[in-house]
Amino acid sequence: RICVITLAEAHPLLQSGKTITSINYQISANCSRLQNKVSGKSKRGAQFLTELAPLCRISSSDGEEYTIYSCIRGRLIEVNENILSNPAILQEKPSTEGYIAVVLPKFEESKSITQGLLTQKEYEEVLLKRLNSSS
After folding, report:
1. Which of 3, 4, 97, 126 makes a 20 to 30 Å CA pair with 117?
2. Strand, helix or coil at 92?
3. What is the dihedral of CA 70, 72, 76, 82, to 10 degrees?
């Protein structure tokens, strides 16, 4: 019942051959996702995230900056510090070693969250419609 936050296959950083120059977990002057300290079975100390909570900002070589949002309510269990020293794994292995964060949704909400997810086929159909409408 944990959620691993990764970049979607269709994200511009994975599509256009851009190079990632930096990843920053410092969300504001007072909030850094790297300060997240979790302990114990009940995950005490974990930062609570809403669907619109920013997780990190990713800068690319062409000057674009992308803010990656949680998209899910829950406790931030961990952020992937490996991508700070090696941002290329975010593009090379986005769904495994290049994950961004791990979030634990509230137990009561986890069932409704998973029921609302798209299947791979539904996701591909959404992407196809998006591509057709933009061309």
Report:
1. 97
2. helix
3. -40
The CB density around residue 3, as the number of other CB atoms within 10 Å, is 19
> Can you spell out the DSSP letters for 16-49?
S---EEEEE-EEETTEEGGG---BTTTTBTPPEE
Stated length of the chain: 135
83 within 8 A of 98, measured Cβ to Cβ: yes
Domains and CATH numbers, the chain: 3-133 (2.40.50.100)
Q: State pLDDT tens for residues 28-78.
A: 888 889 888 888 877 888 899 998 999 999 999 888 999 999 888 899 999
In angstroms, the Cα distances linking 56 to 84, 121, 124 are 11, 28, 26
Rounded Cα distance, 57 and 25, in Å: 7
Predicted TM-score (pTM) of this structure: 0.84
